[in-house]
Amino acid sequence: MIRKIIVVVTLFVSVISFAQKNNASAYSFFGIGDKNSSNTVEQLSMGGFGVSLSDAFRLNLSNPASLSGLKFTAYSLAIENKNIWAKDGNDTQAGATTYLSYLVMGIPLGNNAGMSFGLLPNTSVGYSLTATEYDSNNDINELTLYKGEGGSNKVFLGFGAQIFEGFSVGLQGNYIFGNIENSIINQQKDVALATKYETLSNLKGFSLNGGFQYKTKLNSKVDLHLGANFDLANDIDTEGEEYVYSTSISSGEIPRDTILNKKSTGLLKSPLKTTFGVGFGKENKWYAGMDYSFQEALELQGSILNNYSRISYDKYNKISIGGFYTPKFNSITSYWNRVTYRAGVKIEQTGLLVDGIGNGTDFTSIDDFGISFGVGLPVSNQLSNLNLGFELGKRGKINKGLVQENYLNFRLSFSLNDKWFKKREIF
């Protein structure tokens, strides 16, 4: 068992030791980037729902109360491939990225409790945008390049326990950290040097989330599952530097005359986020459910985050509907009867408002719609799985100077299970 722990710790250290580019979306330009989903590949293959779902073999990252049902040590890692086709009505650009999306582990503590810890992306930034202005002769008069990368990661530790028959509670602590680099280069016609504005920021903060789950039988064939998760209000602090300097693009952007060099701070305030879920199913056979999430508007403060007048924030809402079906989980005659089939849909109001025209008043909501499906393939034994997931969707719209992003996400995860703590039997 000691060897297993060493292997897992080594994996965590190796993952933390390098940064990843895990976004190719123009909308990651705003704030501290796109918010990543805190769900497993299994959950994302069902529309991202699962706050009411508990499993003896698999981890559920959307509600720490689910850890009370964990019966086997479970460790899982996942890889995600994102493909985006962005169009503005005149042109279409494509982008893609592949990255390690999470590394997590759960350990049962007795029969009715469990703990988990892991590392996963929290937000991601990855964009490269060009804005061109033309004169009356249709010649380029001004060229502006926007570029950014980085984001934040989340290390978490969670605990869940059953309080009484069918009712469980859980609590999870999260430490958020990372860095973001943004830059804007402006080159005007007949001007020898370009002007570059650059921000380098470090992010850090703590957050807590807790939840509960309740399970009861409706009849001999169907169970009712209820659940809720509460992401408590939290702040993410940013500290960094702002630079403005002239540069020659042809010489590799070497700074010439520094106009601004100052320390800057920022703050992202996240209000309470609430998720309620309900589901119906039969253990190891099928499950169907729905989650509903809502949150008041985010708030940006400080020059390093709140220096772009074209964005604002509104209330967040999301509905996820999905489920799974396993023909016969313990079949010995057919492998495909042991396969788990998943599908789902999501409808999300991200809360991001963008003024694409730039008059400071015409803000448009950036909404997201996606359908997903996947399979869980048994590996080696009945407890471990190779999970494949696909998601098709679109975000944004083509009007008012905005961009519509059509995306295809492919996800792969390994969910491995073992019994670490066995009682010694004497015959």
UniProtKB/TrEMBL annotation:
<protein>
    <recommendedName>
        <fullName>Long-chain fatty acid transport protein</fullName>
    </recommendedName>
</protein>
<feature type="signal peptide">
    <location>
        <begin position="1"/>
        <end position="19"/>
    </location>
</feature>
<keyword id="KW-0732">Signal</keyword>
